[in-house]
Fold these 4 entries.
Entry 1:
Amino acid sequence: MRARIAAAAARLMAEDGIDDFALAKRKAARQLGASDTQSLPRNDEIEAELHAYRALYQADEHPRLIGELRRIALDAMQALEQFNPYLTGPVLKGTAGPFAEIELQLFPDSAKDVEIFLLDRNIAFTTHEGRRFSGDQARATSFLSLLWQDVPLRLAVFDPRDERLTLKTSQAGRAIERAGIAEVGAILLRDNGK
């Protein structure tokens, strides 16, 4: 049942543009009539199924989509370079769907500096507060949502001291993978060389 839920969740993510693993798991379990939450797969199991699904059914369009999202991410990162940006999330992992948002982590001297940067360029944005974890320590995080080249972009703004720490979305979660400007550029060069 666990494997069936992982495959169904991956299909939902690929076809319906769901980026939330928990939502995809719940919907897949409901579709399959699985009421036992012990059968729910881990995110990495769904991610493996998602890569397999896309390799089989979206072999042409998905690499183009990821390449375009990564190019847009790199453009945003270069514009925000003074805030030490890192790409994270589905765009970095290569699992993003057509409705995915680009996720960047920023480490400015002051969170207000990012807002001023956007306001000075007449870039509309919304803000909300959240948290990320480093070890067992919760870290307050400001999130700014905006459009960059007509693609949703979410900026997670951290204290500059957090740049050297391993950040997680939950206390027990996995570390958030991230890549800086040079790494994203190298990924794009590698992918274009295929």
Note: The first strand starts at residue 86 and ends at 88.
Entry 2:
Amino acid sequence: MLVPSTDGARAGPAPRKPVLSSERTDGPAAAEEAVPGAPWYRLDRRTDGLRAPVVCWLLTRLVLVWVALAGVGGTNDEAHQLYPAWAAELARGHFPVHDSQWQYPPVAGLVFLAPRALPFLGYAGAFIVLMLLCDAAVALLLARASRGPGRGNHGLWLWALGLPFLLQLPYLRFDVAVTALAVGAVLLLDRAPAGGGVLAALGALIKAWPVLVLIGAPRGRATRRSWVSALVSGAVVSAVLLLTFSHAFSFLSEQSSRGIEIESLPGALLLAARHLGYHGGIAYRYGSFQVSGPYVHGLSSAALLLTVLGFGWLLWWRLRARRWSAATPADAALTAMLIFVTTSRVISPQYLVWLIGLGAVCLVFRDTSQRGVALALLPITLLTTLVYPTLWQPLLDGQTLATVLLLLRDTALLAVTLWSALRLWRATA
């Protein structure tokens, strides 16, 4: 805009109004060039290019597929033995109700059946291909979401680099498929909330937790549409599965029987207490290694209470939140997921796939409040892999180093969860 000068001559451009840090910059001005001298870890640098993270994703996935097919590390029992047995039962029209390891909602059965559509690859090979496709879907969603004002490619970088920290595990478990649905749901909540609700419902019918991503749906119509679509689509799919399979919801009875897994925070505390004279053992129950001995029941109840309190805090945050930005749905989803994981009685290593996926969505937005939290997931993931599978047998044998690393991982998760909740509160309430 040009302003007239007092002497009639043509003046230069009018000075721009300075933009305060608290103002939203959703317009083209948000895509400004990099700030000279900005440090490498700052997300205010211009990061529009996708070529480098895409190439990184391709190279790391070639390695991941090779490692998964080779079965390096001895973590291939699920895709090679357990899942094919479940798929055979599901193909006969009923869920594996008599198997104590079956603890999943009914749509998970469709995930286990899907590799049978590619019999020429063998079940394990087809399952790895399926997980690779789900991984590619997450990368595509992050790449598309990273374009535009106020966006960046750091989310795609986190997904490309973070998942390989878990070695072959993501391709030999089915958590990448659930994460793909959750990532899609979060990214749709703002512009297509009904679609986000449908994806969240499908994810919840595979592994329950994706319903948590709806906690950050924008207020008003978006919230109503996302929750109504989630409830309706979940009810319809559940009804179809109930008519098609028998014992579709048998997993509910198995969940109540689970104890404290050794990788959980209370489990790690009890393992550490064994070095101080605690008399407790490790038993294999319901498909996992669990702690047995004194105080187990009390700590299990305490973990459930903390989960309830955490979700109560999320509802309180929802009522008190006043400032909503494009990043808020993703930020709230990551905080909710951290609360769920940290207070869980399990904390299996594949849970980190969920956290990396949601952390990657947060980093798509330049104004996310969870920047440091998402980046902190990388060392936590590395610690997780050191515990499982690297030092798994020493952990079962009670060796000190493995126990210390597990306790360090769980303590870091607890600290990051509190940090995430504080950052979310300050950014919105």
Note: Confidence is low (pLDDT under 50) at residues 1-47.
Entry 3:
Amino acid sequence: MLQLGIALIGLIILLAPMLQSLAAAQPAKIHISAPSKSLSWFPIHLTREKGFYRAEGLDVDYVIMKPQVAMQALIAGDVGYTTALGSTIRAAFRGVPLRVVMTIADKPLFALLVKPGINSVEELKGKLLGISSFGASTDTYARALLRRFKLTPNQDVKIIALGGGTNRVAAMETGAIDAALIEAPYNVMLERKGFRRILFVGDLIPSPLAGLGTRIEKIQKQPDEIQRLVRATLRGIQFAKSNKQESVRSIMKWAEMDQGLAEGSYEMAVSSWSSTGVASAPGLQIAMEEIRAEFKLDAAPDASKAFDWSFVQK
């Protein structure tokens, strides 16, 4: 029995390095929250599909959550990252220990669609404008857009939270709202039905929309994980930008679109995807000016209190 015990101990010692190597080889599980299935962060899906995360030793999955729920889950550590940059930035400036570590979409992928008879943003006065949810990017950009045209949100134009894109499409079709701030492919759907696109928000307010936000604690304790996640995502963005046909096929399957919708959505989104992962200087300035106006600050805040570019700059 003693000899058997000694043999077992020896076997355990012998196998220990192998077991440790096997454990280390297991991909790290990462959950990313997103407020909706949007082309603004589609490169994350494509990166996962192409196996670029696996190549970095990461097992990445994403879950759709409302922005408020996503923030709570991120702060609690229930998810490691979120694509909702608007909510992350605002939380950071309220003192929540969060940072944006990369951008994916450099400008908002929202179009302003209106019913026939409305020909300008100014003509929305006294009308109803549909968004996804309060606190979401559609809410932020709707308010910023109205202010650009000297209209006071919820005073001159009533903002209505309706949920996902299909809900806003239905509300436009039934006449429940007069206009909608809406993303691809729903803008294409509405245009096919005779609704008019007044403008593309990204052309007017080119501030960062989607990317990866995380906790400062993770930045301090797991920088290698973040570096690998960022590196793989940048690889996925480059692939999406340079491989239209494969990207369109992926969009068709992922978003259950026909080819025409997928191609139109890709064309709208591809120019917004960041090649560097860093927000453009003009976009960052606009974002900080919007924060200044929203928070009623005397001056634009210091962007470093919400952004950490160290991982994309390595």
Note: Residues 2-25 form the longest helix (24 residues).
Entry 4:
Amino acid sequence: MSWVDMAKGLSIILVVMMYAAYNTGKYTGETGFLHYVIGFATPFRMPEFFLISGLFLSQVIARPWRRYADRRVVHYFYFYALWAFIMIALKQGLYADAPLETAQSLAFALVEPYGVLWFIYMLGLFGITAKLLWHARVPHAAVLILAAALQMAQIASPSYVVTQFCAYFVFFYTGYAIAALVFRLVAWMERHTAVAVATLVAWALLNGALVFSPGHEVLPTETRMGLAAWPPLHLSLAVAGALALCISGALLSRFAAMDWLRWLGEHSLVVYVAFTIPMSLTRAAALKSGLIADTGLLSLIVLVVATASPVIVYLLVQRTGHGRWLFERPAWARIAPDRPSVTTETLQTLS
């Protein structure tokens, strides 16, 4: 569905933008215009990704455990393990005096998500949890109430897994529980363009007003929201923002000129697993050169390079046939046959 990929395209750009802006701000000690874009998106930036990931869960939840786990658990853990190893090896393994530290980091990454890869790690855990709840026949309403309570409690556990589970499971399960409603809403908005545009404008004004209300702070490495930080309001804005991006995706899918965004969303995981390496290299090189003094412009350059680099590598891999295991799950990493018979599974969707 084009609008799903469009929404994921918007989401991956916002995710890379956040890291690009905050990573740059960390070293310049200043904020740029992208910090305010990210500030606006703070309530819904990651919730939208999780909500979309749950939209198609109902189509696979009843599969036997082996087939389900292959697509919804092993699929994510393969790429998490692979790219965690690559990132740790590049960050620490290059230093001859740090083999023990590298080994410790690799071992710790098994129980605590490493860096930006926490999202992929959590998708695997969410998939297991949803399947167990389905087997136990727990009503959607009960799960949503408990998950919402955990999210609003803003639990800060010593375990990053527990913290992120409490913060984001509600959005993944919401996508699963209200998928039919989301599809009907987007379809209706597609048929009523004027209403859709007016709704998006009203949402944007309300979201911006609540985020940037008195008490907010836009800092080099984070955004502290105003009234939007109140837990019940934060939860509501997260769901509203996720739905707004879905509607935006439906409207954008009408324009052939935006097909690049659909392609990017279709391959969003390719970008997600690999963007931090070119991001760090670009930021470091630009700061060392001293040619770009403006934090906003530097953040934008880092964003573009960090997004485009994984795409270029992916296209080269597809063209040459070498290194497909970086972005495709090989046959040995499967625990159940695909249908129809396929030896590899591409990373084209997060659903």
Note: The two ends are 11 Å apart (CA to CA).
